[in-house]
Design goal:
Length: 455
Amino acid sequence: MGDWNTAGAQITRRRRATFAAGKGARLLPLNGSSAAAAHIPVAAEYGASQGRGKREHSLEIIRRTAKIEKKKRRNDFTEQLSCHRTQESLLSSGSGYKNYRGVINWCVVMLVLSNARLFLENLLRYGVLADPTQVIPLFLKDPYSWPAMCLLIVGGAVVLGTYTILLLKLYSYKDVNLWCREMSTQKAKKLARSLSCPAVQHLNGGEQQVCYPGNLTLKDIYYFTFAPTLCYELNFPRSPNIRMSFMFRRLFEMLFFTQLLVGLTQQWMIPVIQSSMKPLEDMDLSRMTERLLRLAVPNHLLWLLFFYWFFHSSLNFTAELLRFGDRQFYKDWWNSETVTYFWQNWNIPVHKWCIRHFYKPLLRKGFSKMVSQSAVFFLSAFFHEYLVSVPLRMFRLWAFMGMMAQLPLAWFVGRFLRGNYGNAAVWLSLIIGQPIAVLMYVHDYYVLNYGQETN
């Protein structure tokens, strides 16, 4: 027993000495153990130190976050007490504010109220003059009395307008077939089938495509005669079917706006024109200006109603009835910032005809763009004067000069005015320019036909 205790004490002392030495030196492998096992105590000590470092770092982040939150709460409290910040007034250009819907609604309300006052004043002064049922009896009973003469003039203008449209259509029909014949002649040597093209070709979708000379039929030319376009094509775009509800809505609009145009002319236009004869004879400038401004509102309203009646209701009705696919009869001319943009977009059928059959041929013949544009305005001015002077049976050039005046006006607006200012100039020319021409023609017609009776 004593020997065993002595040996155990020696082994214990030997182990303590070994562990004490291991504190300052690397532990060596014993009994064939790996070196990695020898490093386990050191790794454990390093991991413990790393864990403490992470905890200290996390505590530091928490303390910083707390400081930031505390500072933010102080700032929020300061902002709660503050009622001012750097900002521009809404009506300043630098504010970026663009929502003026309320101002636009106010303008509409003021426009309705002001015109309602004028209409009420007209009723109180002249009574109810509008009676669409008396138009036809008046026209048949005494066609040469005032205002029945206006109906003859309007009827003459409609007839001349119809013949003018037919003339432009036939000119386009002639040009397109001439181009097709020239192209087929040029390709005759390369494509033997160009002159023997079938009248109708069936495509994959089942649609029928006509090529020259298969288009030279009575059915084709009659369809083009009634189609709402002035430019001829061998194959017009066609809608798949006729929408009956759409067509009847357009028909109802046509009938309604026809009655409205006649009623407003009887109630508003004719009394103002009749009351303008005396100031025009006396050349009273102030009274003439007052009559001009009184005439501007009903005249412009009638022009807008006529635009909608013709370019939207009537042309869409005809296009739907004939399944004519191209319904772009006008563009956003009301946003015109230049006079040129207005004339290019308010009457698309005429604009397409002028570009295709007049403007581009002049360019191909060597004329400059300015000369070609001036020639287009000259042609338009001629037709305006023709449609007014012939029914009135007098030649005064007011419409011609009004159209030619668009050239310097277009240059001035395009050169010096931009954006809303240009748009306002276009609207002003439409609202004021037309009543001036109307008063000039009415004055000359009145003096020419009724001046001697008055004297």
